[in-house]
Structure prediction request, 141 residues.
Amino acid sequence: MPSRTRKFRGLRTHGRGIKAGRGAGKQGGRGNAGLHKYKFKSMLIYAPDHFGRHGFKRPPEIVHEPTWVNVGGLAELLPLLKAAQAVSRDGETVTADLSKVGVERLLGGGEAEGTWKVFVAHATKHAREKVTVLKEAPAIA
Prediction:
């Protein structure tokens, strides 16, 4: 029994018609082809938000990125804290006011060297477990 391909040898389209035998013939193209032409109605029904821009992006100059420091990086801040007169030492305990050097958030990464009492606007749960976070700014002399 001859194969189907053998049967159609010598015929230009192998019985598929002009376009159906090429590429993505009968389906009208591949992917999103024709969404602005012959597939326009189906695009309106099934994906009305496919084209155009949606939402907005805030300008970078008005987006506020809070400054932060990890608990493990507090020791590295000591020279900056001393220069801003925002640190005091009481035995082994270091008391620091991070808001004076512009730090707004204390994150819990790393381990604190020694005992720290810190005043900061916001501290994460893990940071609170590792250091003492004060509600009011300490009186640093």
About this structure: The two ends are 103 Å apart (CA to CA). The chain has two domains: 1-55, 68-134. The chain has four helices and seven strands. The CA atoms of residues 72 and 110 lie 4 Å apart.
